[in-house]
Amino acid sequence: MISSSEYGSHSWELSVTVDHQYEEVEKKCSLQVTGDLHIGGLMLKLVEKIEIPQDWSDHAFWWEQKKCWLLKTHWTLDKYGVQADAKLLFTTQHKMLRLRLPNMKTVRLKVSFSSVVFRAVSDICKILNIRRSEELSLLKQSEDALKKKKKKEKNSKEPVTEDILNLCNSPVSSGLSGSPGLYSKTMTPTYDPISGTPASSTITWFSDSPLTEQNCSILAFSYPNCSPETLAEMHQPRTLADKAKLNAGWLDSSRSLMEQGILEDDQLLLRFKYYTFFDLNPKYDAVRINQIYEQARWAILSEEIDCTEEEMLIFAALQAYHVSKLSLSSETQDFSCKSEADEVEAALSNLEVTLEGGNTSTILEDITDIPKLADNLRLVRPRKLSLKAIKPYWFVFKDTSVSYFKNEESAQGEPIEKLNLKGCEVVPDVNVAAKKFGIKLLIPVADGMNEVYLRCENENQYAQWMAACVLASKGKTMADSSYQPEVQKILSFLKMKNWTTSSQAVSDPESIDMKPECFVSLRYTKKYKPKQLAARILEAHQNVSQMPLVEAKLRFIQAWQSLPEFGLSYYIVRFKGSKKDDVLGVSYNRLIRIDIATGDPITTWRFSNMKQWNVNWEIRQVAIEFDQNVSIAFTCLSADCKIIHEYIGGYIFLSTRSKDHNETLDEELFHKLTGGQE
């Protein structure tokens, strides 16, 4: 018999498995413990017993049955609820992880498997030198994509080898704090704003980081496109239901990788989750701009987002001759000409992408009256059983409403109809070659959406009215400081679309070394022969041929942001009281209920009108309350409801960012808005 004085009357045996590399030492270990022993004391007891001289500072206890880390070293076993049947693993907190970046390159680096995903992504972005880590997250590949990959590997005669960039010696891996991510606004520019190459002053920074100049160029530049065969093999989302599957795999930002079943050396996708690219600055953001550009490019090529033929050719022109060729030549070209740099600085300042909720200007404009637009436009109302009725009217745009009259003379009286555009959907209906400049308005009414088209005469009229409609849909008037930049952005995009075949265009597309099918989606590859595609891409290229590299990428991003479906993440849901499934589109400023069969929007709800939202975790139902006593509730069928809850909270969190504030993130506020109370 062992006396009670030796072990204490309440001691018991605890089984611990130690994760170490020494084959001659047993991995399983039994310790005699009491419930009032704290976790720090348990670590000390274990290390003394196994007698392996090494640095154990990165090790912690993982409780396998409960799927949780025991990180609070001052807590006792009793407080954690650890009893004799518990199986603990003493393992490293930082483990290797493979990440597929938006540019389809794979990096391998050490990541904290014990920190919540929000913090782990922040550390990853510091290693990769990507600012604004809150815009990104980690995504598990969809099952369809994994099946295709396995099938390809099975059918391949040669073993599939992946080109992986190893960043094992990262500052985060070694337990040191990573690079500050170059967040300071007063520091020396990190990148050449024209070519995106690292500035000479940054070489000292690279010496502390796994990102050597060569590695940085892999992340900051775009290289020649994949083959048409590879593009054809990629997952092509077709229906809204297919697109919804892509968004089911987002990891929970409030839990760690290990808690979500991620194992060492697993592969995840690092993607921009929130489509609010705040404070893009070419001096600091060469990697970030390139990765956003790549995510946009692949979304267009794989038909995740729809665009017109005219827009597809613009995207192809910016990719084909511009980004690909300039990226290849950027290492040999000298872009340091000062006068050229000044011109590009001016152009890039106009292209800077800012969040709707950010303070774009702190200066209050001296406006006594809210501006208004008044002009002749044509009104088009679709009719189910007859042709569209197209009639000219005198339109007046004031505040956030459009009124129309029979003619200019009758504008002093009552309008035929007044359309309130607050909360409406604004969709461009443009074909520059055909001189068609239309604005499609989907205006919320009690039983759905009222569809109205406005037809403009020319580019300038269209840009002014389109910009006014876009701002009005967000509840802003033309007095807002973002009105003129919005007009210029629309005109700039129209100018890129406006090309004609000229003598400057290459007469023989065959003389150019290009594979046009690499730059457009499969739909257009099937529609046109390669020679025809090449000729059309060359025509479109005339308007972008003089752009420097970084500006071309920013223009591409800007054009992507102009697409009607930009920034929408889809989920299949069942609304309370409904007998059929619908699709819910989540965007940075609104939720859209979409008919799953036709793809038509049914209702739009703006975040600006939202009073509160919560989740009933027992029945997994999201409930949202809006102004004017509007309430909705739905269950999510294509993903966990926590993902939608986090999306809504995440976008509201991002809308609180401001350039005036210190650029440190309020992580506590993020978790309050997104964590939920499960």
From TrEMBL:
Kindly list the places in or outside the cell where this protein is found, as annotated in its UniProt entry.
Answer: Cell junction; Cell projection
What UniProt keywords are attached to this protein's entry?
Cell adhesion, Cell junction, Cell projection
Q: Does the keyword Transcription apply?
A: no
Query: What residue stretches are annotated with the PH domain?
Result: 378-474
| Any Pfam family matching the protein | FERM_M
Gene Ontology BP, a term = integrin-mediated signaling pathway
Query: Which CDD domains is this protein grouped with?
Result: FERM_B-lobe (cd14473), FERM_C_fermitin (cd13205), FERM_F0_KIND1 (cd17180), PH_fermitin (cd01237)
The entry's protein name is: FERM1 protein
Lineage of the native species?
Answer: Eukaryota, Metazoa, Chordata, Craniata, Vertebrata
